[in-house]
Records
---
Amino acid sequence: MSSEILLRYLHFVSIFAIVSVVVAEHLLIKPQMSRKELKRMAIIDRIYGIAVVIVLIAGMSLWFSDIGKPVTFYSKNWIFHLKLTLFVIVGLFSIYPTVFFIKHRKGNPEESVTVPKIIVWCLRIELLLLFIMPLLAGLMAKGVGFFGA
């Protein structure tokens, strides 16, 4: 198996994991949650973190190596830069829920904690942005947005 295929596979599987985790968190989040449930959310969120690291490593390897497409294919494409920007924004929106889950997971497992509505909105915005990114990837694969010579 070639390095490019392996990297693309890791990249795609990790993207699926990221989307799956955010969907799971959105489905599991409630206005009131026990610390036991928040601990479970923190564990689920850890999978998100691992998947993000793999996406970044695989993506950067594909971008900056001579394994697949040339560096200019990505570097000189405004859609690619938009996709990267959305990825960073998704990451920023994920910080508050992650910190909340980690901060409130310890204590009496049956104790109830009020979950701020902003966490639900952070998850929804993450999902919206994540579902825009495949469209951008498809456009980019067709050469749309390339401004190089």
Note: The mean pLDDT is 96.
---
Amino acid sequence: MLDYINRSGIRSAVISNLLWSGAALTNRLNRLLPGNQFEFVMTSSDYFMRKPNRILFDIALQKAGICADEVWYCGDNPRANAHVQ
């Protein structure tokens, strides 16, 4: 999937509820998924709040320089990744 995203020029990033720092998760992702092209990696521990807190999504939108209607979000936990209006 990441190869397809990268080849297609689709921008990607990570928002995680891990207790690790964003830097630690970035290092692990780079080791396990060396071809990733994530623009940024955010974790809950960096911002002292957890998904689905809308603030995390708003921060990600600001980092990416886009509006909510220009992004797709894919998560692995329906509760933590609930759609925020």
Note: Residues 61 and 70 are 9 Å apart (CA to CA).
---
Amino acid sequence: MKFMKSISSLSDVVDVPAKSARERILLTAHDLFYCYGIRATGVDRLIAESKVTKTTFYRHFPSKKQLIIEFLEYRHKRWMSWFVESLNRHGGTIDALYPTLEEWFGAEGFRGCAFINSLSELGEEIEEITSITQDHKECVANTVATLLPDSSRAKSQAMGIVLAIDGAIIRAHYDKNPKIALSLLRYVVEALGKK
């Protein structure tokens, strides 16, 4: 499994065996949950690929639910760090949104938004997924708001842009042509700016 370097697991950056058992489990869960889905990734596979014993696994994560919650918290930190860095690298204005998302959409292993995917899979069964997703989207909106001209409408515009980003993520996931999703996103962002 190879994911884009900027938001990949730490296993791409450091030697995995040097990490603690807990970190290996979390990094393995990150990669497998994102690549294959949470339901499709069983505990036995997580144990085998993290190279830990069943006892060690359950000592660190007494339930798969706890691991799912920590995976989403980890993903949030990694993704937001990459997102802010990429926006700054591309100029720090609303126009930086397009090359940033194009970079993500075109990355090897892109499977959409981990939060939308997790909510679709297990949102009704694990209520924490909903609140984690809400917090993540709020954080994305706050970041987008900093790219907009300072006005009383910046926050509501940012919320509308994040809604359009979510649509673009889904479109890029099933269409496999990020240019279409990005052109539609640009149209929405420009329309929001004219109101």
Note: Confidence is low (pLDDT under 50) at residues 1-16.
---
Amino acid sequence: MITIGICDDDTHFINELHDHIHDIMQPISDWQPRIYTSGEEIISSIINNVFDCNLLFMDIVMPGKSGIDIARYFYEHHIDTDIIFITGSKEYVYECYRYHSFSYLLKPLSRTDIANELNRYLKEIANVPKCLNISIKNVHYRIPLRSILYLESDCRKVLVHTPQKDYEYYEKLDNLENALIPYGFLRCHQSFLVPVSRISSYQTGQITLGDCTIPVSSSYRNKVDELFKGHIQPSDTPDNPLITKSLSLNQGITGAIVCTKGLYLGSIIRFYADEEIMLGRDGTICDVVINLPRVSRRHCKIIYHKATNMYEITDFSHNGTFLFQSDCSQSNGNPTDSLQLIQLEKNQPCLLKPGATLCFGEKDSIYRLI
């Protein structure tokens, strides 16, 4: 079940958008709506602990608090919700990205626009790594669950062991057990919580996790035995404030490219570290579809290298992938029409820094690496 909110001061538009979302979601997934007519309503529901949206469609220009104000509030208060902005203005693209919005759609919206973004969102959210949300001396950390080796209780503190480092902070292991068991973790001892996927062997009294041996106490032995006999069934994964699931809060691990001019204005394509993303017109062979006449079926491949903060782009197209010259003047964050373009060499990887501006075949549609 996914909860989708709509925030707009135009009730007619809310009803229309709700009907579109309902028709799109019905064959895909169960969903429930939340309706807001102002930003103040959203903040009030957060303060009263009743805000539960996974995704929020939100207008930018509204009386009182604007959509940007709400996005800033989400960002500052670590609200675990993704935002798709819906607006009649083109001027807020970069500001919206700064606050980790998922996408930016221009009114009037078509059902195709909404369907494309919803399908893209559901695909990305299914792949985003769930993270353990912790705070150490007022610094927030989000540790991907798949990177956790095990958790260990030490008096009033918990140590989260990962291959890179250990995180030590004040927390009760009981609270973490309740939060993590739905995500494949097992309590095997008063002092230990382990991910089942990392268990390499089990014998009475101990679990082996690679090179590490974890004790199994007598009070937890029956539960561990039941697990390995296959009698314990996976549980549901309810919302828990210790686990962050949204793209917005977990977005620090990604690069991104944003459309700053053209039909796909405001669309944001995110990249996980060293993940290959194929762009093109054919959805059967590409990860991201850009359905424009001069975009090839299989246009180009982009890889974001997190270690160097560089993008590797390889062109495969008929009409070319073009880079705006780095010394060109710019207007309102977009290259001017008079600027010359450099065509990337076909089938040859090219490394580009964040800030580079590109177009894929269509010179009227411009993208910027973030």
Note: Confidence is low (pLDDT under 50) at residues 327-337.
